[in-house]
């Protein structure tokens, strides 16, 4: 377990100090010394108020059904208006939080600081929570976030960035997502003690590795969290992480290691706030404990309160949070993922379920069209349109879901309708072709029957 002096965390009200980014206080080493304590309000896990009606069902004595089984027992055609999906993905909003989020949204809209693509309840709430619901500080943090996304070209990473060295990087920096915790959150694992920075620098660059990290963060927000929400049947918005630091000491915290750690920590704290549920640091030996005294000097108390520093007897603590089936054998669990070459290569989780991914794709498609409608930036030849046609070929009922995106009443509603009308025309044309093929097949069948009857007539 952690040394008594390693967890001197004070939880209290924020004191209004200036801060560039909570969770990242800048590089500051004070090994063995003391630093001024920073206090910040501690908020409960972000999912606390977002359960569905499980509590109400329990109170009524109803047996809860298997979330993923009951959800996937309905084909996509049942979600004609996507409201069922959205209810699961959104969860119930705490009234107090909602009031503050609505006020924050109005302020950002009034000042022209809220692009439709980022006008999302949970995104706004995360930034508010990170700034103790201080509207001014939350606005500044949100502005910095939007600027960073533009400068870093986050939205075009899927098109412009191809991490071809993925397999080689995994060998010298073992990390990855694997399963979920007992609440349903994705589990992220890093084996820090096995990181070889020299080889990492040979197979990739730190800049490309950071881009890979951002891509994974985006996938977690857009795919992993929604998939886990559908599987758990409640809103999931944070990750449970495990860092295996076996053999790590001060010598591992070289200048390149500090650079990589600082950049990733800054990105996670500033631009993906409130996405960490708990962090378990395991196999912490004496060498790491000395390093930990240096590292924790630039982590704020909100982050510190989520971190558990454990020695080699960590398993009982991990098993309280994670079922053995979702833990790799090298952490004391039951999973090997032998078909994938190891657990950290498998990216195992609900986000690998094709049916879940299809439902998420439908919702994301709807949100994308809505965003384009509000932006007034809908191009009938938009590159996203073929994706809709591809999905239409897979499921003939998705157009029913897309009809909601027509944005009635907005200035760009006409453009949206043109987009959807084009898809309708394609769908109608496809339907006509199918009808003609059916007619030809019927005529061919009639001809075959006539020929057969002719052949069977007795010859005179």
Explain what you see.
The protein has 460 residues and is α/β, with parallel strands linked by helices. Among the domains are: 93-151, Orthogonal Bundle (Helicase, Ruva Protein, domain 3); 154-350, CRAL-TRIO lipid binding domain (Phosphatidylinositol Transfer Protein Sec14p, 3-Layer(aba) Sandwich); 352-371 and 410-435, no CATH class. 50% of the residues lie in helices and 6% in strands. The chain has 18 helices and five strands. The chain has helices spanning 54-59, 67-72, 83-90, 95-110, 121-130, 135-152, 157-160, 166-172, 197-203, 206-232, 255-271, 286-295, 301-304, 315-321, 354-375, 385-394, 398-402, 413-456; strands at 175-180, 186-191, 239-244, 276-282, 307-309. The chain has a five-stranded mixed β-sheet. Helix 11 (255-271) links the parallel strand 3 and strand 4 (276-282). Helix 10 (206-232) crosses helix 11 (255-271). The longest helix is centred in the C-terminal third of the chain and has 44 residues, at 413-456. It is globular and about 100 Å long. It starts with 53 loop residues before the first helix and ends with a helix. It is a peripheral membrane protein. Belongs to the SFH family. One of its GO terms (biological process) is post-Golgi vesicle-mediated transport. One of its GO terms (cellular component) is Golgi membrane. InterPro entries: CRAL-TRIO_dom (IPR001251), CRAL-TRIO_dom_sf (IPR036865), CRAL/TRIO_N_dom (IPR011074), CRAL/TRIO_N_dom_sf (IPR036273), PI/PC_transfer (IPR051026).
């Amino acid at each position: 377990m952690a040394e008594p002096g390693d967890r001197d965390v004070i939880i209290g009200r924020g004191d209004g100090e200036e801060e560039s980014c909570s969770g990242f206080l800048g590089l500051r080493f004070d090994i063995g010394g003391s630093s001024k304590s920073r206090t910040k309000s501690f908020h409960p896990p972000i999912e606390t108020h977002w359960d569905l009606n499980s509590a109400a069902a329990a109170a009524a004595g109803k047996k809860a059904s298997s979330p993923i089984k009951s959800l996937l027992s309905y084909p996509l055609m049942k979600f004609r208006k996507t409201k069922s999906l959205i209810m699961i993905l959104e969860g119930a909003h705490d009234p107090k939080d909602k009031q503050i989020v609505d006020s924050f949204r109005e302020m950002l809209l009034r000042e022209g600081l809220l692009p439709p693509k980022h006008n999302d309840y949970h995104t706004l709430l995360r930034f508010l929570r990170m700034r103790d619901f201080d509207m001014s500080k939350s606005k500044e943090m949100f502005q910095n976030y939007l600027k960073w996304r533009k400068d870093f070209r986050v939205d075009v990473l899927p098109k412009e960035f191809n991490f071809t060295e993925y397999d080689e990087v995994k060998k010298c920096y073992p990390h990855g997502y694997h399963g979920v915790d007992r609440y349903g959150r994705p589990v992220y694992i890093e084996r820090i003690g096995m990181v070889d920075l020299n080889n990492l620098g040979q197979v990739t660059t730190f800049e490309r590795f950071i881009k890979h990290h951002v891509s994974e963060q985006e996938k977690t927000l857009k795919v992993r969290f929604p998939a886990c929400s559908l599987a758990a049947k409640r809103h999931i918005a944070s990750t449970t992480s495990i860092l295996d630091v076996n053999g790590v000491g001060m010598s591992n915290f070289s200048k390149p290691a500090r650079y990589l750690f600082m950049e990733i920590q800054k990105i996670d704290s500033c631009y993906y706030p409130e996405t960490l549920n708990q962090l378990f640091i395991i196999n912490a030996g004496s060498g790491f404990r000395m390093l930990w005294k240096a590292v924790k000097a630039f982590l704020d108390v909100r982050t510190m309160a989520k971190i558990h520093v454990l020695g080699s007897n960590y398993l009982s603590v991990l098993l309280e949070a994670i079922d053995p089936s979702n833990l790799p054998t090298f952490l004391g669990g039951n999973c090997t993922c032998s078909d994938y070459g190891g657990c950290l290569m498998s990216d195992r989780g609900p986000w690998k379920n094709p049916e879940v991914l299809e439902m998420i794709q439908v919702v994301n498609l709807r949100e994308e069209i809505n965003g384009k409608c509000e932006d007034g930036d809908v191009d009938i030849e938009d590159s996203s349109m073929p994706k809709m046609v591809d999905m239409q070929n897979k499921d003939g009922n998705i157009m029913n879901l897309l009809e909601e995106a027509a944005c009635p009443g907005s200035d760009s509603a006409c453009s949206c309708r043109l987009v959807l009308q084009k898809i309708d025309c394609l769908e109608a044309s496809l339907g006509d072709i199918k009808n003609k093929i059916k007619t030809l097949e019927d005529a061919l069948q009639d001809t075959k029957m006539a020929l057969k009857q002719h052949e069977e007539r007795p010859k005179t």
